[in-house]
Specification:
The complex is a heterodimer. Chain A is about 75% helix and about 0% strand. Chain A is mainly α. In chain B, about 70% of the residues lie in helices and about 0% in strands. The chains are: A mainly alpha, B mainly alpha.
Chain lengths: ~350, ~300
């Protein structure tokens, strides 16, 4: 680990942002250019993901006609249904048609419900987003005070407790936490509902109540992770940086030094990880949505795979992939917003 | 820079507590304990899961006698009781742990070998080949592994081996990224440049100079990764994609126990504790090793 400023980059891939060629980098710097490059690099990735999904679904035995018509369907019926859906074509034709339509903004209709895919996704997306946002809020509300208290007196009693909590948080599986939470808060004391979702439009209070246990299950493992990360970054700032020593020497109170000075410079690692988590969290939410029967993207995906409903699967996978890519981009942009010294040169990546 | 007082000098002048614990004589002992305690816990867990059933008399994990169903903790013959169809819980915990650990070892072994090699080569060759290779890894990362897991389970049927196949989709790209990042850091080191200039062939250079220097990071990640895989295996069980019943795994014990949670919370709690302690030990050991290696 080198000194503090590049160290925050070490979380990302390699030492691509080393302070070499500083003059040249400053001369050619442009956040927009880097964004453009990243977006261009994202196109083959998105294409690869859709193709891989198509390929994988093609390997799954059976198809939508069979799974919808049931075991008693005759081959003629199956063929007829396939022709109706336009499925009686070779693999590459099917993929080409799908891709062509998507590029024109047409995601097609669900094979099973025949509703437009966009409307299916539009009903599921807010649920997953709300769950993840709620989980993020819980994790940050827990992580910030814990990390600040821990960094205030390293190796003190508060630090030990917060480290024990965060180690436990990192080590507990979110589904175990979900099941235990249901047991305690829905069975032993009925504070929160075990399953059932109230949409945000119906009743906001009930909506939050129905999402609280799932959000805790998503948020606590994250909180453990974030606490550890933020504490480590805070300590590094507190122990190594001249400006902290200057601030202390000026007689600024210890809390003010931590919150106003060290915290701001400790946020890089946390922000990167939060942005990167955004995509992976959608995947983690699949299990949580399943356990709490939430009508989100994850539940929809499982159902769609069961029905061989390729248009829905593809659209959902595309959203997962978009979130991952967008998270990466967001991390880059936020770096520059927080620290105006950071400039992206053409040598990066 | 030489004329300016170093931060340590300023700190010394102001006598501020700068580097807590690092120089203290107990630091070394604490670091050692941070490795030996979780390593010991893991040894015990491995011993119990792989050799335990040979030493204590436990019924087979799929042996059932319906007359013995729903026995409580510490009952006669069944230390941890039985579940709703009469399976012995202790036996299933031990055999289930064996399955979970086997899967974790295999998935991370494959991940480290395949992904680690891939990332090392990509990082070392650099340029457009690196870009192409890493876009491929990006696809795997952005692709939701759950789709592949379901496809594999439906196409090939659920089994321990197929769980391993499905989970390598998570481990290979993670190892590839890590080993590429580590390689990029090592690549510019003087000894690597010196070896390259003195005409060392690429194969030898990668194996003898780069690999030994990125291995500590890969091994640390292996431990953290094993924890992740043990957890993911359980997640697959919740979707009926994990180890098929009646074969036990901690994941499917928790998933199955969840259906009778109100009546028998023990069926969920016992495997959850086993899972938690194992993942905790792996994380602690990973942490301890990282501290040890970075302190050197």
């Amino acid at each position: 680990m080198s000194a503090s400023a590049p160290a925050s980059f070490d979380l990302r891939e390699g030492g691509e942002a080393r302070p070499r060629h500083l003059g040249r980098r400053l001369a050619q710097s442009s956040l927009l250019r880097v964004l453009g490059r990243r977006l261009l690099a994202a196109i083959p990735v998105m294409w690869g993901v859709t193709f891989l999904t198509f390929l994988v679904m093609n390997l799954v035995p059976g198809n939508v006609a069979r799974s919808l018509l049931g075991a008693t369907a005759t081959p003629a019926q199956v063929n007829h249904y396939e022709a109706q859906l336009g499925l009686n074509h070779p693999f590459f034709t099917l993929y080409g048609n799908w891709l062509g339509n998507v590029l024109q903004g047409n995601f097609g209709n669900s094979y099973s419900s025949h509703a437009p895919v966009t409307s299916t996704i539009a009903s599921q997306l807010p649920v997953s987003f709300e769950l993840i946002a709620y989980g993020f809020i819980i994790s940050l509300v827990v992580a910030f005070p814990l990390a600040l208290l821990a960094a205030r007196r390293p190796n003190g009693i508060v630090d030990r407790i917060s480290m024990a909590f965060s180690m436990a948080g990192v080590s507990i599986a979110n589904y175990v936490l979900a099941v235990v939470l249901v047991w305690v808060f829905a069975d032993v004391v009925s504070v929160f509902p075990a399953i059932g979702f109230v949409s945000i439009g119906t009743n906001f209070g009930e909506n939050l109540r129905s999402l609280t246990l799932p959000a805790i299950a998503v948020g606590v493992p994250l909180a453990g992770f974030y606490t550890r990360l933020l504490r480590a970054d805070l300590l590094e700032q507190m122990q190594r940086e001249d400006y902290v020593i200057t601030a202390r020497a000026k007689g600024i109170g210890p809390w003010r030094v931590i919150v106003r000075h060290a915290l701001r410079n400790s946020l890089f690692g946390l922000i990167t990880v939060i942005a990167l988590n955004f995509g992976t969290l959608l995947g983690a939410a699949v299990i949580i949505e399943q356990i709490f029967s939430l009508p989100g993207l994850g539940n929809g995906l499982i159902q769609a795979i069961g029905n061989h409903d390729t248009p829905v699967i593809e659209a959902t996978v595309l959203i997962f992939a978009l979130m991952t890519v967008a998270g990466n981009l967001l991390a880059d942009v936020l770096y520059a917003v927080i620290d105006p010294r950071i400039r992206y040169g053409s040598t990066a990546e | 820079m030489a004329a300016q007082p170093s931060s340590a000098g300023v700190a010394g002048a102001l006598s501020l507590p700068l580097s807590e614990g690092a120089a203290a004589p107990s630091g070394r002992l604490r670091r050692t304990l941070k490795i030996t305690i979780p390593a010991g816990m893991l040894l015990v867990i491995f011993f119990l899961c792989f050799l335990g059933p040979l030493i204590f008399a436990v019924p087979g994990p799929t042996y059932t006698n319906i007359l013995d169903a729903n026995e409580g903790l510490f009952s006669h013959h069944h230390l941890l009781g039985t579940d709703q169809v009469g399976y012995d819980i202790l036996s299933r915990i031990l055999y289930g742990g064996r399955a979970s650990l086997e899967i974790a070892l295999a998935v991370n072994g494959i991940g480290m070998a395949v992904g680690g090699f891939f990332g090392m080569v990509a990082g070392y060759v650099g340029g457009w080949r690196d870009a192409v290779m890493m876009r491929f890894i990006d696809v795997l990362i952005a692709f939701p592994g759950i789709v592949l897991a379901i496809a594999i389970a439906e196409r090939l049927g659920p089994s321990e081996f197929h769980v391993i196949l499905a989970l390598t989709v998570f481990s290979v790209p993670a190892f590839a990224r890590l080993s590429r990042a580590a390689t990029l850091r090592v690549r510019e080191e003087t000894f690597v440049v010196a070896a390259r200039l003195s005409g060392t062939r690429t194969n030898r250079l990668l194996l003898r100079h780069v690999l030994p220097n990125i291995l500590p990071q890969l091994i640390t990640f292996n431990l953290l990764g094993m924890g992740i895989v043990v957890v993911l295996e359980g997640a697959l069980s919740f979707l009926n994609l994990g180890i098929p019943s009646p074969q036990p795994s901690w994941g499917n014990m928790i998933a199955n126990g969840q259906t009778v949670l109100t009546a028998e919370p023990r069926l969920v709690i016992v495997p959850s504790i086993a899972l938690f302690i194992t993942v905790l030990s792996l994380n602690l050991l990973g942490d301890g090793l990282r501290e040890h290696w970075s302190a050197r």
